[in-house]
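U., I forgot to send this yesterday:
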Amino acid sequence: MDKFKKITRKILYIELIILIFLSGLYIVRYFLDIYNTKKQSQLLDNIQIDENIVYEENYNIIEELQEIPSIEIVKTERMLKLEELQKENPDIIAWIEIEGTNINYPVLQGEDNDFYMNHNYKKQSISSGSIFLDKDYSWNHTSSNMLIYGHNMKNGTMFRDLLKYKNKSYYDKHPIIKFTTNTYDCNFEIISAFQSKVYKKTDKDVFKYYFYTNISTEEEFNEYAQNVKKASLYDTGKDAVFGDMLITLSTCAYHTNNGRFVVVGKKVSS
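Result:
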């Protein structure tokens, strides 16, 4: 029993010594912090600022800013019409038109890529659906590529006329896509038209154009632009470089199972 008490006392002594040592470290650290704080304060106090220089520099900056004219967006007639439509449905984000074709529609963007496949811009159920922008496209972190879908209707509506771009003669007559949003009314010149398909997940070494909904890097852009040109049915003589804004129009096609026909353009004016 006496042996047990002796061991217990030794453990208590060791713990007490450790406690005293740690307390000492804490006290030393506390006073070092006070010293460093005072030293920093003194350094800040020693920094002298010429208020006249500061005032003069700020005044010059303000004068320069005042000379920069404010940028005001001039609303075109198409932009104003778009605004009126948006009062009816805020999911309407743009208007697309290719002159001389049946493509002349509002563009919508929903929370998914299913709703507007069978609903019109009034949210009414209809087999032809709407022309709609991929749900993943972010207007806050703008991508370099807008991927837009539309049905291939037998009556010639929606994106049916895209299939006519199989022939270069049709492209020669209709090389421009007009696109209007709340901030710009611009043209995209077509750089490529090609046939594709929706591939299986296991398919490798194939160009899955529908995965490029949020191009944000130069590497992604160049990869997409090169594949688009490589897949084109003919040479349009137009290319895209990093920094260009692209638009990709996609519709169903029946040259193969799960076929798609795709037209790609780059922004040339606003």
